[in-house]
Amino acid sequence: MRDAVSREDFLRRLQSNIFSVQCIINAWYCKEAPWLSWDCEEELRRLLEVRMNLIPMLKEAFARYHEKGIPPVRALVMDYTDDPETYNIDDEYIFCRDLLVAPIVSGKNSRRVYLPKAERWYDWWTGEKVESGWHEVITENIPVFCIRRE
Questions:
Q1: In angstroms, rounded to a whole number, what is the distance separating the alpha carbons of residues 34 and 22?
Q2: Binning pLDDT at 50, 70 and 90, where does residue 5 land?
Q3: 41 with 10: CB under 8 angstroms?
């Protein structure tokens, strides 16, 4: 993450950043830390705590990458080749093994999200079950869904 034009832009970019392979805030050129400039230190702290909780998942994902060649971050079509809807989606991705991430850009609080046909999808933040298919998601957070494998 290199730059932001507003508090909301900073937070939206940070939300995507924590669900990336390298979580970096490259702010060496800023006069003060961006979270201080945008008055969002508490939000930053919460998001970085989320990132810390993702580390075991990332470690496992990199082990799979090394052993099987499956990247930790990949297009939906890599995991759902039998679902034709996934072939044209370029703004959602699979993170690690079980998470589907659908970033929302600054200036918006909603977006359409496609959940491929799977046994069980859950909203990662609330734990609520969500059906496969297209959904309009309204949130201040980043939409993240997971599959519970049993």
A1: 18
A2: confident
A3: no
